[in-house]
Amino acid sequence: MLLASCTFRRAPSAAALRRSVLPTRQVGHFSSVTSDDDKGDSDSTDTTASPPDDDPPTTVNPPTDQPADQLPTTDSIFSTKSLRPTEVVAELNRHIVGQSSAKKAVAIAMRNRWRRRQLPPELLKEVTPRNVLMIGPTGCGKTEVARRMAKLSDAPFLKVEATKFTEVGYHGRDVDQIVRDLMDVSMALTKKRQMERLRGEAKGMVEERLLDILIGPDGSGAGSGSVSNKSQRDSFRGMLKDGLLENQEIEVDVPDNIGQGGGKDDGAVMAFGVDSQGVNMQAIQDMMRKLGGGGGQRRGPPTERKKMTVADAREIILEIELEKLLEKVDLKKEAIAAAEESGIVFIDEIDKICSSRDYSSKTADASAEGVQRDLLPLVEGTTINTKYGNVNTDYMLFIGSGAFHAVKPSDMLPELQGRLPIRVELNGLTEEDLYKILTEPEANLVRQQIELIKTEGVSLSFEDDAIREIAKTAAHLNRTVENIGARRLHTVMERIMEEISFQAAEEETADEVIVTKALVKERLSDVLTSSDLSKYIL
Questions:
Q1: Ordered structural domains, the chain, with CATH
Q2: Calpha distance 152→358 (Å, rounded)
């Protein structure tokens, strides 16, 4: 790492250089300069431009003598060794109430991804993942399990809805697009991981680039032994480290594709956009970017010279240098390997492409049995052509999910049933389950309402009897109207909070509001007594 190996020496003319370069308002930067050797530099803009964990410790940076193309393998990048089944279940318990069988099934499936990679090569190819089918009524937590898995999984993860695909030959997206979308996710995740590993090396290059812009390349036109040039460079290097040049304006050549996204997404990695006609806009953008570079010696997107401060230029140049380092890494190869060996596809609403035997014999549906037939080779194992290369699905994990309230799992094609051997049944939610959903998860509905009203300066609280009354009412509506599971709680809670939320911003509103059992009954009385409940059905 360049910054860690440099010794900063003040040249005799340092004071004069400061007076000639720095505006008077920059002197105040001395009071905010921090020196943190663990970060490898003292970039004063890092704390505002990126989250703290975007500056990894020096242990993750490759050694200075290690080429960028000799980085750790894909297996170490997408390792799930720390995700033991008990840890996965414990994490899911923080957000999902009950459904222990479903939690155990997905936890074991995720752990088996790591176990398989520990097998000897001759056995590795023989072990294939055991795909899962989750069956349960709407609102019981199936989709929430997938959402939490995406955050827990240190591997390419894609959630799709089966109803968005049509049979091959009909207008719409075919199921092969699932693998293409997964490859987009894998590519973005691989790039993000490599950028984190290369960030330390790139920061050293950023400092040298800034020095080149400020005073010219080291030794340029003066010979390698130019004492005055080295002295001046060391002086400016010291000022950069002290944060004295952060407000100095410089001109930087910025490629047009810099700052268009990527690199700092803290959430789950998502696929690039595909429009409603199935056209991959990212592929078109990649092609246009290549064409925009012109011919001759120059390749890549055109650049534009922009004037900005050193603080702003630091982040721009860091992204430019990271892109240069990434060119030395075979991202496509690693992304394909990650998708093939660690890819997880969650197919939601799989019951919506099933039809009862009587119905399917009378009508034809491009989004039903034909899609099931197209899914067969994908789940069993086939090779799909993508813009990154051929991708094999033999070792991808597929998890199907559906309510199956209008059809039965046996209505699926027998071949597809056999390719989803692990069946997990999720239970409907009872009144006690609804009460736990309101109180146990970290981001439960009660806490959400309390924090929302707190922004108006009003202290909101719920009595325990009131929470139990909310759960009781939601369970009653699920039994008598339509069972929509935990989603019913949103309807009931909004009904209770409607007047409180409306008046919270007014000055005459009390500083403290307590939701009691009597208040809940009063707000929900018309819901329980009215014969027409259509207004409250989602």
A1: 2-23+33-67+195-329 (no CATH), 77-186+335-425 (3.40.50.300), 431-529 (1.10.8.60)
A2: 42
